[in-house]
Amino acid sequence: MLELLGNGIVDVMHWKYLLPLFAGTLAGVVGGALPGVTITMTIIVLLPFTYGLEPLAGLAAMTGVYVGGSAGGLITACLIGIPGTPSAIATTFDGFPMARKGQPGRAVWLGVWASFFGGLVGGLFLILVTGPLAQIALAFGPWEYFSLFILAMAMVAGLAEASLLKSLVATAIGLFITIVGTDPIGGVPRFTFGSEFLSGGFPFLPVLIGVFAFAQIMTDVEKIRQPGAQGEVLAKRPSLSVAHLKVIGEILGRPFLFLWSVIVGIVIGVLPAIGGSAASVLAYDQAKKFSRTPELFGTGHPEGIIASEASNNANVGGSLVTIMAFGIPGDAVTAVMLGAMTIHGIQSGPLFVSQNPALAYGIYAAYILAHPLMVMIIWASTFFVLRLTSVRLAVLAPIVLVLCVIGAYALNNTMDSVYVLLIFGVFGYVLVKAGFPLAPLILGLILGDQIELNLIRSIMTDSNPWLFVTRPISGGLLAAAVLSVALAVWQHLRHHKRSAGEEEADF
Amino acid sequence: MRLGRDGIAGLIGLAVSLLLLPQALSLPKLPIVPVGPGFYPIIVLVFMALTSTLLLVQDIRAQRQPAAAAADAAPALPRAYGLVAAAFAVITAYIMLLPLLGFRIATALFVAAFQLVLERPATVRQWAVLLAIAIGTSAVTYSLFNDYLFVLLPRGLWTNW
């Protein structure tokens, strides 16, 4: 395995991969730092640039975005007090007070080095666990796959911030989108209403881009006239120079805090559909609970920054595990990566690592190399990035939308995909306004075909439907699915009703 | 009977699934496969109908109880829904005109129009910046994708450019 990883690193060091990785990491840092531009949005914008590249080059760029974005948010969080991405929200709590107290360099670099080490430990987990997990999944029959996908959807529906019922409706909509088109076994057209284009089904990426990008841009457009959200810019351009070894010592000198935050990040990453923002907030909360000085949290305490940033970068490693071992995306970012793999004809799932070892280890290598690149980029460009945050939505939004249109069009050089983009863009916005979560919809959309295929396969192998329950692994997975929905119902009843208002969607 | 946001959504979900169920049921059976192509769609549509119905019922029950929850909600900040509608209109026009005008012209027009919708420039300088961004975006993306990334972008049916 070490040899494969070594080869992967040597491969990725080639400029053909290193350049996209660098560009991706840079885009990630910038996108992560810009308030209102999320990591998902950055990866969507980057997507059309990867079509012409080799699969590994494209995936390296996307891995770079993911790593860079998870760290980039801390720049704005610490220096102007606005989280650049939702996953940097908890960094703001202590990062900004520390910067205001005259230690902006310490705040930023505590975050950067915590991201660096947290991400690397997450990477270690990714490399060690993905292969064995995929091995287990290889023993799965169609029953187990079916049940695994059901479990993933049940967990997403149960974990979503919105009501369970709405999450389930969103899941149903996602599944419904996948049944449009010819059926996977006999090639019979379903719900195509005679349309030639629809017989191929809705193309996945335009739907995804439309739903996420439009929903986010339009919710930003709504708020454009609202005052506030400008952030406080520190008086004058502060010096960020800091004794790096001392800062690193501050992080590694708190091994329990650091490792616990990393573990929280990884676990949240592995679970489908809850991402970096949940990881950082939860790790921050835990750090405060375990701390000997909880009263210092919120006043510029280093522990708060370390917890938040170590966990949100470790979260990336965890998310990559689920997608590489099972082909189940942990969040919207990995969903786009999955879509990009499909464009290049790579089948994701448990066979991925064993069938494409060069690619898999290339992704690991890109993930690891992205961390020193991220540190270098932030070191060199903090103030440049900070200046970019003054770019207004009126300028940013149309450029992002043009790139979305290119991303949809270039998939197969037809306007049809662009029409799909527009239709689902409007639809996604309406869903968000109606308070439906998007994550369950996307998961249903991604897993729908696989669920049907495995369902039909298992029935074709043996017509006994009880096998889903009596096969131990499959039965266990289904039981876990029922349990996670039951848990969500129980929690809902206990808290009675959470506010019926519009949830702040986390893209 | 009054319906809330959720009730309307539930009603739409229910209507769509009930409209499509007969279609799913009438899909042909295949000789070799024990279950036909309609089998899975029926499951999905029934699932959608069930969850939508539950959402509808939940909303009807919530509407009967007078708005206790709504009262303590904080007053919402004003949202510019008119701008959202205008933004969607501009995007729709862009996508419709794209195959007719070609990528370069349509994109420049779109970027200019979208900026105009969100912020009206006041000075000559601001107008110049707006136009520069519009033309720049169009030119840079076109040359980048067309010449370097081998992504062919649409030419205009009317303009042939």
Summarize the SSE layout with pairings:
The complex is a heterodimer of chains A (507) and B (161).
Chain A: H1 2-12, H2 15-33, H3 39-50, H4 55-79, H5 89-100, H6 104-138, H7 142-159, H8 164-179, E1 181-182, E2 189-190, H9 204-222, H10 244-252, H11 255-270, H12 276-290, H13 302-326, H14 332-343, H15 351-355, H16 357-388, H17 393-412, H18 415-433, H19 439-461, H20 467-470, H21 472-494
Antiparallel strand pairs in A: 1-2
Helix pairs in contact in A: 1-16, 2-3, 2-4, 2-16, 3-4, 3-14, 3-17, 4-5, 4-6, 4-13, 4-14, 4-16, 5-6, 5-13, 6-10, 6-11, 6-13, 6-16, 7-8, 7-19, 7-21, 8-19, 9-14, 9-17, 9-18, 11-12, 11-13, 12-13, 17-18
Chain B: H1 5-25, H2 39-64, H3 68-71, H4 81-101, H5 103-118, H6 124-148
What is shown here, in short?
Chain A has 507 residues and is mostly helical. Chain A has helices spanning 2-12, 15-33, 39-50, 55-79, 89-100, 104-138, 142-159, 164-179, 204-222, 244-252, 255-270, 276-290, 302-326, 332-343, 351-355, 357-388, 393-412, 415-433, 439-461, 467-470, 472-494, and strands at residues 181-182, 189-190. Classes of the chains: A mainly alpha (507), B mainly alpha (161).
Describe it.
The complex is a heterodimer of chains A (507) and B (161). Chain A has 507 residues and is mainly α. Chain A contains 21 helices and 2 strands. Chain A has helices spanning 2-12, 15-33, 39-50, 55-79, 89-100, 104-138, 142-159, 164-179, 204-222, 244-252, 255-270, 276-290, 302-326, 332-343, 351-355, 357-388, 393-412, 415-433, 439-461, 467-470, 472-494, and strands at residues 181-182, 189-190. A two-stranded antiparallel ribbon of chain A has the order 1-2. Chain A starts with a helix and ends in a 13-residue tail after the last helix. By secondary structure, chain B is mainly alpha-helical. Chain B contains 6 helices and no strands. Chain B is flat, with a radius of gyration of 25 Å. At the A-B interface, helix 8, helix 9, helix 17, helix 18 and helix 19 of A face helix 1, helix 2, helix 4, helix 5 and helix 6 of B.
